[in-house]
Amino acid sequence: MSRDMWDPELYGRYAGERARPFFELLARVRAENPERVVDLGCGSGELTLELARRWPGAAVHGLDSSPAMIAKAPPGPSFGVGDVRDWRPDAPVDVIFSNAVLQWVPEHRELLARWTGFLREGGWLAFQVPGNFSAPSHARVREVCRSAAWKDALGDLVRDDPVDGPEGYLRLLAGLGCAVDAWETTYVHVLPGEDAVLKWISGTALRPMLDRLGPERSRDFLADCAAALAEDYPREPFGTAFPFRRVFVVAHTE
Fold this sequence. Notes:
Layout: H1 8-11, H2 15-26, E1 36-40, H3 46-54, E2 59-64, H4 67-70, E3 78-81, E4 93-99, H5 108-117, E5 119-130, H6 136-145, H7 151-154, H8 166-174, E6 178-191, H9 196-202, H10 207-230, E7 240-253
Parallel strand pairs: 1-2, 1-4, 2-3, 4-5
Antiparallel strand pairs: 5-7, 6-7
């Protein structure tokens, strides 16, 4: 994407829910005393800091394509602005970590093969991606984007499922000689407030659409999305239940 579309405040609205998969992925990485750790697609860097806390003797570096996100990064690790597709280390890496980024990269399967080649012998590659592209939160938005009112402006931004299931990534990385731990988890987040699911996806899945439309047209688009989502995600006394499937993969070179 040619310009910065990420709003750190909007993305961080559900920081706790978004952080949980990070920690569950990190718990399955059994690297001991790594020297070089890289967080690709690090966002605003708060979770990169957790990598530095996990491995205090490592040089930890975070990379993200959004200058606005990197501007919010905390002290400690080093950070840089760049596209994960262009990243190449100047020396082998012990741990490559990527949290909820690769769903934005159509060629990420080829990228994963390249990243394994950047690992030191015995190195670790860990990533997770949303696996909820068939859920109503995405299916209804695709319907809105393909509707007569929006297809000319947004039809080309519609994405069907861009990621594999755990089995697909297992086959890919095992075929590259890695030992692979792959699994999926469905969280049921309880979101507060009106139009709760719309607010969640406004910080992620809807960013390309909102970036293109601008503020005035975005209001109309969001109203159409809210109407489309209301039946699938009713607000209840305790909040809005939002099932969210995620796919996790940890690969270890041997």
